[in-house]
Amino acid sequence: MTSPAATHRDVFGSPPEGVWSAPGRVNLIGEHTDYNDGLALPIALPQRTHAAVSVRDDDRLRVHSVQLGQTVEVSLGSVGPGSPSGWTAYVAGVLWALREDGLPVRGMDVTVDSDVPVGAGLSSSAALECAVGAAASDLFGLDLLGSDDARARLARACVRAENEVAGAATGGMDQSAALLCHEGSALLLDCRSGATEQVPFDLTAAGMVLLVTDTRASHALNDGQYEERRRACEAAAAELGVGSLREVSSGGLEHALARLSSDELRTRTRHVVTEIARVEATVAALRGGDLDEVGRLFRASHASLRDDYEVSCEELDVSVEAAEGAGALGARMTGGGFGGSSIALLPEGSAGDAEDAVRAAFAARGWTEPACFTVTASGPAGRDA
Ligand code: ADP
Ligand code: MG
């Protein structure tokens, strides 16, 4: 593979001032909890998006994507909510959001190269934003990488880029993961307080692996469905007289369910409340080295997302069942659902069998071949060596 720096020289005529990168992420557990002020537990992936960057003296932004084979030029003055459209929004939006935050940002030439699968629920969008944000921090002397607080500020700018410029109404988990995850750890993210905690996640010592399956399925991620789930959660919280479903404790769940006005609100609430409890239980199990329990929690999480929250799909269910049939301690869909990826916790020796089983199950149904790969918890956004 040609290096991003060499590509940058070919495309823009001079070498970059440096190369920065940020990881994709996979959420271990805690799905559809972020917009309920809940808990999530992502790890950073070994797969990263790299940005080779040189600064300009003007307000032009030129961006080349190796994956798309496209170069696009925009003026920073024209960037704002909804503009530009398309993939450059994820790059221009970060510079716009940093400026909105009062920081001195100018134009750039940017070459993007990535091995994060795009649109697979593994957060290629946040990897792109955070790689560009890390470059801007260093090149404009913004000091947004030196501490967790500074990184959290950069994460908020990247969230604004995605929400306001790209127009994707996502929570903040992806950007926090890309900027705050440590190698060998999962990131416990409290979406109510913004607090984060590192949780040891090193499966190698236990002879286990985490297998990711990109199902390559995408059922028109139904922005409609996502919005509907959010609305149901808000409606349930309103009926219960609480600010968010985070306020409902596991112990108070049955009582809360009895007070809700419909089965829809009851099942959505049950997922959110039990899922937040499963994140806490997973953290305790990881700290105690009990991976059987982590597997059990993965299974319970998938069942809850499939049956109560109704955001799974056939491809996700089949990948989970095939991995479990081949020896996984547990498996679950990860990400928003309706397609995307699943994860499975497996003894190292069973990973090949599980991959074969998933592939065979997809082939038997005539579905597009899935991509399977094992991952370790990797490091955050920063300047490449
Ligand atoms: P995910 O974040 O799960 O991969 P999203 O739909 O949130 O899926 O983000 C994918 C979008 O991010 C792409 O459609 C594209 O606009 C942009 N993107 C991500 N990686 C790249 C890349 N390497 N080059 C150009 N655009 C990219
Ligand atoms: Mg994304």
UniProtKB/TrEMBL annotation:
Alphabetized UniProt keyword annotations: ATP-binding, Carbohydrate metabolism, Galactose metabolism, Kinase, Nucleotide-binding, Transferase
Gene: galK
Name of this protein: Galactokinase
GO molecular function, one term: galactokinase activity
Family annotation (PANTHER family): GALACTOKINASE-RELATED, MEVALONATE KINASE/GALACTOKINASE
Keyword Cytoplasm set for record: no
One Pfam family it belongs to: GHMP_kinases_N
The keyword Manganese belongs to this UniProt entry's keyword annotation: no
Domain Galactokinase N-terminal: 7-54
Source species: Phycicoccus sonneratiae
Entry's family note: Belongs to the GHMP kinase family. GalK subfamily.
GHMP kinase N-terminal domain residues: 90-180
Documented EC number(s): 2.7.1.6
Domain GHMP kinase C-terminal intervals: 283-363
InterPro entries hit by this protein: Galactokinase, Galactokinase_CS, GalKase_N, GHMP_kinase_C_dom, GHMP_kinase_C_sf, GHMP_kinase_N_dom, GHMP_knse_ATP-bd_CS, Mevalonate/galactokinase
